[in-house]
Amino acid sequence: MTSPNPLLADTDLPDFAAIKAAHVVPAIEEAIEQHRAAIAQITEEQADDFGSVILAAERADFLLSRTWSPVGHLAGVADTPELREAHASAQALMTSYLMEAGQNRAHHDAVARVAARPDFAGLPPAQKRAVDLALRAFRLAGVALEGEARQRFLDIGVALSDLSTRFGNAVLDATEAWSEHVTDEAALAGVPESDKAILAAYAQEKGLPGWLITLRQPSVLAILLHADDRALRERVYRAHNTRASDQSDDRSHDNSDRIEQIMALRHEAAQILGFNDSAAHSLETKMAADADEALAFLDDLARRARPVGEKELEEARAFAAEHFGLTELYPWDLSYVAEAMRRTLHGVDQEALKAYFPLPRVLAGTQKLIERLFDVRLVERSGVSTWHPDVLFYDVQDASGEVVAGVYLDLFARAGKRGGAWMDVCRARFRDADAFHRPIAYLTTNFAPPAGDRPSLVTHNDVVTLFHEFGHVLHHLLTEVDLPSVGGISGVEWDAVELPSQFMENFAWEKDTLIGLSGHVDTGEPLPEPLFDRLLAARQFQAGLAILRQIEFATFDLTLHRDYHPAQGARVIETLERVRAAVAVVRPPEWNRFAHAFSHIFAGGYAAGYYSYLWAELLSADAFEIFSHADLPGGGASAFRREILAAGASRPAADNFRAFAGRAPEVDALLRSRGLAA
Ligand SMILES: [Zn+2]
After folding, report:
1. Which of 49, 135, 324, 448 is 20 to 30 A removed from 224 (C-alpha atoms)?
2. CB–CB of 288/615 below 8 Å?
3. Whole-model pTM over 0.85
């Protein structure tokens, strides 16, 4: 190759427009070689000072991720067959290299020498924390293991990764394996036209006339929420809740054995590392001290939410009796009745609402909100090299006008772009010996693109999403930590990393902010207050039942991992039943096999960590209330910026929270924000 590889160029921003699939593998190979050489130099020098060991490794990591980040990003937003193939090859190289690097004992020993120096205690907190986290990562990667234990630990890692993939595939296959073909439209009475269009598209996919009911999420929701035919709801509920299990009509995807193997191997791996159980292993890197603390939190929540949930169920029963003549409510009736209640009591026409949220207005309002809260300015910069003409780039200026950070906004759905919304790191903030690198982030959403000369109109839910992702972005961009490994979102505990994002979500439910950024696409008229009030009331509808379901899943997950015993096996059904007896207001039928499709914990990263959703909400709700009362020195937002956003992982999340709030988190704010407070 004669022209230089843009993925290896030392520039302020990646030259996205110049990156081709053919650049990917050579760049990653080169970057990995450079990283390996840098680490080898660290270990050969036998140094023990922070600069030669830690800073040098941070520099190597920074350069590797500078090359890798655009590759991973492009695979998500600009998919082509060539790029997908190049990305897969590069990812395989990265995975195997990172595994090797995590096991590098000489590198571990070098970091340990830094920690053993007499002057270690006198290092700035962020530097000490970077060393501590590096040592912990080595320990959890099994660097200290010898002989048989070392090999066994590595084998378990490979086996678990394979089992997770097979668990997830079984869920996908079981989801695709079931369907019910409908040719008589009357069978779909109650289902809205937009949902029927989805079912019709499923039928077309298979070359069938009419409609195809499947177990994909939109189809399951369409039937369980809307179908008047009770027997149809029951069939879909049963098929969906026995997916990939021994209770399914089709047992070929049964995950029972895989769950047993996964649980056994997780327990063994945890014990090899010296943990009592795999819950303790998982909690080692989280903010909650241990499984007992997280369970006590869930218990407390359940106790307070149960009376509310019971009352909501009674109301649903009364509504069902009055409107549908149902004397008994089965699990396949609950969503249907709830949806009818929601429409009757709090009906909000989401389509009509969208007219109040043209994207340019929403963006301008978001910008203003961020500027008001955090005393920075977001200034659009044109001429930045991107992967698509719709992509925007903003410079972030501090109060003095200096550019301190930047963010790419890629907001519209299009072909070749992964669904959903997310934030990712492009460049970390890094103050190296003679260079300063500014933090750069990507913010990606899938909003409806503009149609003709009409601007994109977004839903209220989209506004919530935009604020959420901006929370992550601000966490990264407003960091004042100079070391990439503990700056921004990097190194932050899993159960605390959603604090800034969920904190920002609250503003989408704040009357002044939301009405302030609204403006009808035709008239410019702001969102009328009664509409806002209905929106807010709908948010808290059946809040008790909703939170009890989350508590049930989270408690099941933690208990399953904490109480595993090799002689007794996983005891999935038994554990689930016990948890439901303690938590649930609505008892699912005994053939319900929810766990067999619980991919979050068996195929994703949430093992003994599903509680993190509620834990982070505990932090964000509490922080937001404190912020709203704003009796903090310098105002709530500046304290939030200083103690949470700027501090990143330079301190444990619990310390950040305490520095902001002056106390440990308390659960009451969460109950209030969910509308559950007595
Ligand atoms: Zn998030």
Report:
1. 448
2. yes
3. yes
